[in-house]
Specification:
This protein has 7 helices and 4 strands. The protein is an alpha+beta fold. It has 2 domains: 77 residues, Peptidase S8 propeptide/proteinase inhibitor I9 (Alpha-Beta Plaits, 2-Layer Sandwich), CATH 3.30.70; 46 residues, no CATH class. The chain has a 4-stranded antiparallel β-sheet with strand order 2-3-1-4. The longest helix has 25 residues. The N and C termini lie far apart (87 Å).
Amino acid sequence: MKPSGTHLPMLGILIFNLSQGALVINAFTNSGSGRKPYIVYMGELPDTNDAAGLTTVDSHNSLLLEAIGEERIAKESIVHSYTRSFNGFVARLLPHEATLLSEKENVVSVFPNTVRKLHTTRSWDFMGMPVTVTRNEKVETSLIIGILDTGEQVAKYCNLLSKKKYSLRHV
C-alpha cells in the first residue's frame, strides 16, 4: 500500500526525528567511550584550604575542569577524591586529558588505574600452618596476620624458620 500524499510529510518528519534521536543517543554513549580511569596523584594533603578557600575536592574538580574544558563532562568524569591519606583523585579521562593533567605544577603523577590480580602461593606453608587447621572463631576475631611479600623465594627461609621458636600471644 502506498502512503497517501498527506502522510508523506509526517513520515518524513518522523524519520528525521528518529535519526536525530539516534544521533543524540550515539553521541551521549560515545562521549564516555575512550575514557578510562586514571589516578591523579598530587602528593601530600594541603594543611588547610588553599588561598582561594577551595576544599581539596573543589581543587580536584577545578583541576579536572581545566583539563577537560566542559563542566558537565568534568563532573561526570570524577570517580573518587582521596582526601584523608594523600591528595589525589580518580577520573575517567581521555589520554590527552591525562597528559594535560600530568603537566600541571601541582600534579605529581598521572597513571592508568589498572586491576591487579592477587598473586599468592604457599602462604600457609610459609607460615607453617596447614590449610586444614582447626578454626577457633573466638580467638580469630582479634587476630591480625600480616605478610609482606618481597618476592624472594620461600625456600631460602625454610631452614631459618625451623630453627626459631615462635609463640603466639594475645595483644
